[in-house]
Amino acid sequence: MTNLKVQLTAKATVLCVLLFIAGSFSSIAQTDTWVQKSDFGGTARQGAVGFSIGNKGYLGTGNDGNLMKEFWEYDFAANAWSQRADFGGTARTHAVGFSIGSKGYIGTGVDIVAVIYFKDFWEYDQALNTWTQKADFGGTARKNAVGFSIGSKGYLGTGYADGTGLTKDFWEYDPAADTWVQKADLDGAARYRAVGFSIGSKGYIGTGSDLANNCMKDLREFDPVADAWTQKADLGGAAREKAVGFSIGSKGYLGTGSNGNANYKDLWEYDPAAGTWVQKVDFGGVGRRYAIGFSIGNKGYLGTGGDKDNLYQDFWEYDPGIILPISFTSFTATKQATSVLLNWHIATETNNAYFSVEHSNNSNDFSTIGQVKSKGNSTVWQQYNFTDALPFTGNNYYRLKAIDKDGSFHYSDIVLVNIANDKTITIVYPVPAKDILHIQTNGNASFSLVNQVGKILVTKNINGSGSINVSGFAVGLYYLKNNISGAVQKVVIAR
């Protein structure tokens, strides 16, 4: 294997010009710009994986001629890299990575030395700094596939498969069930070395090449609800492979890459509402292939990669000049004794009125369980929290709906908490109840009847069997909560 010379690019000097105006300071804002940040903390490499979780970026695996499994975290606020737990699987390159909620995922890839293709799939827990092996990818082992997440699901497809060649199959991963389900094949040509990213509720795959190194410039949009692909406008720049893609707000970005000979540094912005591409300022570093990219808030990040002679470890931040009405940097759900604590951090808020907290047991049908008032306008980090006192037994999905003062709204990612069944059996009858609600249980527990806004109406200890008088309560939907196990079930009162 050709030895590649490591080229370390010099750090750029950032000049902050402050203007003294009427006794106060204000900074000159620049948009559509690249600023060089701290070099990647590990060795220069290509074919790595990059993704973000909340307000942190992550980069791992890849190769410099030797395979790697180290894993690094980037803190944009401190502009600093720190090494985290090594990737849990075998060292590899040309794998796929994405995040779902507060967890990161890496899978597939290849050992280019022994020529071994992988289909194993691993989950990274940011809070615990640990890796857990999950169900193997549902398709064949492969390299140079693409992946992204939409809501609470992950998606992986295309690539070069062991023993099969180029592929166009496409798979959905459900982290709650730890299962893969095959979806509609990509409707364009089979390919590898493509780019994948998601914007809102849609996913996108574009560019790439075939085995004859014929590069592509088409873009396909995936609708997970319809399980269907639609061809969109071709990339405005040259056809290419080995490029980088990420999204910021309602726009997608694609840049760098190669046509097999020349390496590119141009950057293009895709607007799904208009269905158009617009060229932006060129990437701040040299042209390259097999770099990584991700976004945090309203900024994009791109770094590492190489060309035929050099490998790079420089790292750059892109500011598109997009002011997001709300910029979520993290959203987590944590199981408490009998409740779930939700925490979220906001980088910026513009005219935000309040957050509506939404809850589901299937990740599709959400209902509002509370509201949290917003700070309204803020350019500094803000922290919010909410406690769900009535989580379901089993899977609990949460999302935030940030509602602006003009009535427009924006959703956060979906997070998941599983409340384990402690095997307590509770039978409630009659259904619906009229005046007396009878309860039978296989233990001794305290039960509370709770209305739809979370108010406890009555609490009673029941050992084996007992009842609650509900004659004084209005007809409607209520919840019966086991205060020992935290289990909740619906109760209907009708007359």
Description:
The strands form 13 sheets. Strands 36, 37, 39, 40 and 41 form a 5-stranded antiparallel β-sheet that branches. Strands 42, 43, 44, 45 and 46 form a 5-stranded antiparallel β-sheet that branches. Strands 4-33-31-30 form a 4-stranded antiparallel β-sheet, with no helix packed on it. 0% of the residues lie in helices and 51% in strands. Mean pLDDT is 88; it is low at 1-29. The radius of gyration is 25 Å and the shape is elongated. The relative contact order is 0.10.
**Domain unit count:** 3
What fraction strand? over 45%
Q: Give the end-to-end Cα distance, rounded to a whole number of Å.
A: 79 Å
CATH architecture of the largest domain: 6 Propeller
Structural class by secondary-structure content: mainly beta
CATH superfamily of the largest domain: Kelch-type beta propeller
Instruction: Let me know the average pLDDT.
Output: 88
Biggest sheet architecture: 5 strands, antiparallel
Stretches where pLDDT is under 50 for at least 5 consecutive residues are 1-29
Backbone shape: elongated
CATH class descriptor of the largest domain: Mainly Beta
Write down the CATH topology of the largest domain: Neuraminidase
Number of strands: 46
- Determine Rg (CA atoms, Å): 25 Å
Proportion in helices: under 10%
Number of helices: 0
Brief rundown of the structure:
This protein is an all-beta fold. The chain is built from no helices and 46 strands.
Key structural traits:
3 domains, five-stranded antiparallel β-sheet, 495 residues, Immunoglobulin-like, single chain, mainly beta, elongated, Neuraminidase, disordered N terminus
